[in-house]
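User: I'm new to structure prediction. If I give you an amino acid sequence, what do you actually give back? Let's try with this one:
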Amino acid sequence: MTATVFLSIAAGACLLVTAAMWRILRATTRRLDELSQSYWQLKYEIGELRVQLEGRGGSGGAAHAPPQPRPPGGEAFVPLTSLKR
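Assistant: Good question. You get back a string of structure tokens that encode the predicted 3D arrangement of the chain. For your 85 residues, that looks like this:
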């Protein structure tokens, strides 16, 4: 009798944990969909802005931008494009 009660309690606990995990999974899926939609929206807007910039006669890149001063300290970020030259 005690084994049956223990198994019933364990099964009930498993059902509760499963329901909680299902809810978390659904919320995570919704958030992933929102983030994916935001990503593609931003990608589209960047493309539109790039087209507008090129239409105005802009260079569209930072190749002609003046070099920025080096930050204080021992290390600085070096973009890979500058190493290829």
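You can read the tokens as a compact description of the fold. Here is one thing that stands out. The chain has a mean pLDDT of 83.
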